[in-house]
Amino acid sequence: MLRVNIKKTFPEFELDIAFEAGPGITGILGPSGSGKSLTLECIAGIDKPDEGKIELNGRILFDKEKHMDIKTRHRHTGYMFQHYALFPHLTVKQNLAFGLKGRPKKEIEEKTAAFLKKIKMEGFENRYPAELSGGQKQRVALARTLITEPSCLLLDEPFSALDPDTKELVMEEFLSFLHDHFHGVVLLVTHNMAEADLLCDNVILYRNGKVLQQDPKKEVLKHAVARQDARNPAAIRI
Ligand SMILES: Nc1ncnc2c1ncn2[C@@H]1O[C@H](COP(=O)(O)OP(=O)(O)OP(=O)(O)O)[C@@H](O)[C@H]1O
User: Fold this and answer.
1) Ligand 1 within 6 A of 37 CB?
2) Which of 10, 41, 47 to mutate to test the pocket of ligand 1 (most atoms within 8 A of CB)?
3) ABC transporter domain: which residues (predicted)?
4) What backbone torsions phi and psi does residue 127 show, to the nearest 5 degrees?
5) In this predicted complex, what is the ipTM?
6) pTM score
7) pLDDT tens-digit profile of 116-158?
């Protein structure tokens, strides 16, 4: 279980949110600039809230009052950025091994081989990201995040770089891969309602740095659809 109750203030924006997320995929859905990425960055420890508390499976990651701020690499969170963020100068295998730096060579060899198999990319280990399709890059990026065995996956618009033709197939593969290989909390940031509908169990709706609604997907989307701009069905108006 992930519990988040934080505040962060900038001159022109304030994030002030509280939510809980259990196992399964929880979507954070909201318009551009509503604080979705900032939330993930605070949970991952890349950014720091001004106030509040973040707890993962009973372990405090951040607590302003208790002066606790666990370093990113010790948070057991796996963060996957928009546009994959694979290292272009590293091969598939080197990208996978990146998060295992400092571990025994044998463990690195075994884990990278096991993950290459899981993502069905044996034989591609020496290719560079530029030599892969969008879906393949997405699988490598996900595997690189999962190889460190996180308790919580933080996915920031993981499908935004894919073209519409391959997107649906990649999302279906992604769902079945997660179902087979990951059983923790997944937070998935999106501003696309159709994506939230396909992928998420629960949805947290953001507006202007605040949580507008948190419920099972069907409840949230029912109300969001009612507010939707009929001329632009892909956009959400909340
Ligand atoms: N370092 C910073 N200094 C000032 N303002 C910031 C800083 N970081 C984020 N913000 C502001 O916080 C707000 C939320 O940004 P965030 O990136 O979380 O939005 P988002 O919901 O992820 O948007 P998008 O869907 O466009 O990625 C924005 O208005 C942004 O300008």
Assistant:
1) yes
2) 10
3) 1-233
4) -80, 155
5) 0.95
6) 0.88
7) 998 889 999 999 999 998 888 888 988 898 898 899 999 998 8
